[in-house]
Every structure is written in structure tokens, then in C-alpha cells.
Specification:
The chain has 306 residues and is α+β, with helices and mostly antiparallel strands. 41% of the residues lie in helices and 17% in strands.
Length: 306
């Protein structure tokens, strides 16, 4: 028996000719199977895999159900915060409640599923918003949203549309983070810096803009850039980049900025998260120095079309 076939419903087993008493015996204390969920059998005694848990959730929720939330994001290849539940969307008319590790949500907006290895998953933008509705930490929401955008699994526009279409219940954090993304913020540390600057009365940089020379050739894309002072904020940490290559790219970007006469404030996420006073003081010094000097020539922000 293949792994994917080890999740079976009582109905499927009895339709195949197995007596219900036999099913009950096999999932008993001395039987070779186990009950995974009401009416759902796992045909081995080991720990269920994530795929078996997902298949069990679908079997329990019924035809037409769709996996969403963190389990869907995992299937889409994204990292996710620790989670013990599987979230399933079902049609609004279906009277089904969650049980055990399965959380069932009835919806009038059942998405067109994306099939992966035969399993229907919600598209990334929907899965992100559904996952974030279950979280209470703003930074966890920021991590999930930032990764989905950075890995190009969905666009900021798709997230904004999904949040707009969702009921307002439990979407306050998602709406706040989508607003940050719309302002150009692309990481948890950037979002925290933006928040600090707003609270402490410091001017906001332009976030994640393209700097070019007079010929339109790319110089760099700093995390933050104050155009009047020709000063850049650069957040440097391997732990807060998705791949080591991202960190090397950050270092090349910092060199390019310096060569073109742009002042750079390199900070680690811990400088922002754990030492707000020091971070604010260093930012003020950077901007004051930028205001005192002659700006470098031939450095421009490339304006986005539209």
C-alpha cells in the first residue's frame, strides 16, 4: 500500500466490501490501524506524516474542500511558523465543524484550488491571509508576508486584493502589513524601522527604491534611501535574509552605494529591535551629516511606471 493510500474513510472501506466491525477491530488497541479523525482511518500505527494529516483533513471535511493557511504555504515551498493544525476551507452551506488538529472554516469565497500531488491547496495570497488571521504576533505576520513577496510566490497587489475581499474579522494585522508592503517595506526589520521612525518623528526614507546614474544604469537598491541627504539605510544579517546569496548581494550593494558617494548606515536587525535609542541616535547623525555636505552628482531614484 502506497503512503498516499493509507488515509481512508470508513465509507470507502465499507463500499469496498469491508465490514464496519472489521474496520472497528483494526483501529482498536491491538489492531494494525488507527483512527485519525472521525470516520477517517490511517492504515498504520506510526506517526502521521504532514501529507497524511492533510489527506485526513480533506477526507474529514468532505468533497470540494481546500487546504489553506500554513499547511498550504508549506506545500507552496514557503517556510512557516510552527503550527500543529491543518486549516480547511469548505463551502458555506456545509455544516462541518473542526475536530482535533483540523480547523474547518466555512466560506462563500471558496478559491479555485491549485492541485499539487493531487491535493487542492489555496493560492498563495489566500493562504497567506488565512494563515495570518490565526496569528497574534505582528512580527510573525510580517515574516510570512515578506517571505511570500520576496520569493515572488505572490505580488503585493494580490495580497492587497485578498485582504480587501476578506471579512474584516481577524484581518487587522494583515491589513497593517499589506500597508507596509505598499509603502515598499519588504522585511520584519524594515517594518520595525518604519514604525520607529514614525513614532520618533524622523523622516521616512523611500523603501527599496532603485538608484540609477544619469544614463539610467542601476547603482543599487538600498533598503531605505533619504534623497535630500543622499543617505541610505542598509540592514545586514544572514539570519534575516532568505539565502546566503542574499547576504552577499547586500554587501555588494553597500560597496556600490559608498563608491557613488552615498552615506550608508549599516545596521543589524538586533540594532533596530533591541536598541531603539542607539538606532534613532545613529539615524539622526547620518541625516545631519548628509544635510551638511554637498550631495553627490548623478544619483537618481528610478521612478516606477504608473
Amino acid at each position: 500500500m502506497q503512503q498516499a493510500e493509507r488515509v481512508l474513510t470508513h465509507a470507502a472501506l465499507t463500499d469496498a466490501g469491508l465490514a464496519l466491525s472489521t474496520v472497528t477491530h483494526r483501529i482498536g488497541p491491538r489492531g494494525p490501524w488507527q483512527g485519525l479523525l472521525p470516520g477517517v482511518v490511517l492504515a498504520h500505527r506510526g506517526t502521521p506524516t504532514l501529507r497524511e494529516r492533510v489527506l485526513g483533513a480533506l477526507a474529514f471535511a468532505g468533497p470540494g474542500s481546500v487546504i489553506t493557511g500554513l499547511a498550504a504555504l508549506h506545500a507552496h515551498g514557503l517556510r512557516a511558523v510552527a503550527n500543529t493544525h491543518v486549516d480547511v476551507l469548505v463551502p458555506q452551506h456545509r455544516q462541518r465543524k473542526g475536530f482535533g488538529y483540523v480547523r474547518v472554516e466555512r466560506t462563500r469565497r471558496l478559491p479555485d484550488p491549485q492541485l499539487m500531488r493531487g491535493v487542492p491547496y489555496a493560492p498563495v495570497a489566500r493562504a497567506v491571509v488565512d494563515a495570518c488571521r490565526r496569528l497574534e504576533s505582528l512580527d510573525e505576520v510580517r515574516e510570512i508576508v515578506a517571505e511570500a513577496v520576496q520569493r515572488r510566490r505572490c505580488t503585493p497587489g494580490e495580497l492587497a486584493a485578498e485582504v480587501s475581499a476578506s471579512a474584516r474579522q481577524r484581518t487587522a494585522l494583515s491589513r497593517a502589513v499589506v500597508a507596509e508592503i505598499a509603502a515598499g517595506v519588504r522585511s520584519v526589520a524594515e517594518a520595525r524601522a518604519r514604525e520607529i521612525y514614525r513614532r520618533r518623528g524622523l523622516p521616512q526614507p523611500a523603501w527599496n527604491v532603485r538608484l540609477v546614474n544619469a544614463a539610467g544604469e542601476l547603482i543599487a537598491e538600498p533598503d531605505g534611501y533619504w534623497e535630500e541627504q543622499a543617505a541610505a539605510l542598509q540592514i545586514d544579517s544572514m539570519a534575516w535574509h532568505l539565502r546566503p546569496s542574499d547576504y552577499r548581494r547586500t554587501q555588494r550593494r553597500q560597496r556600490a552605494l559608498t563608491v557613488h558617494g552615498i552615506l550608508v548606515l549599516p545596521v543589524a536587525p538586533a540594532d533596530i529591535l533591541d536598541d531603539e535609542e542607539g538606532f534613532v541616535r545613529q539615524t539622526r547623525m547620518l541625516l545631519e551629516e548628509g544635510a551638511r555636505r554637498e550631495p553627490p552628482g548623478e544619483v537618481f531614484i528610478a521612478r516606477r511606471a504608473g
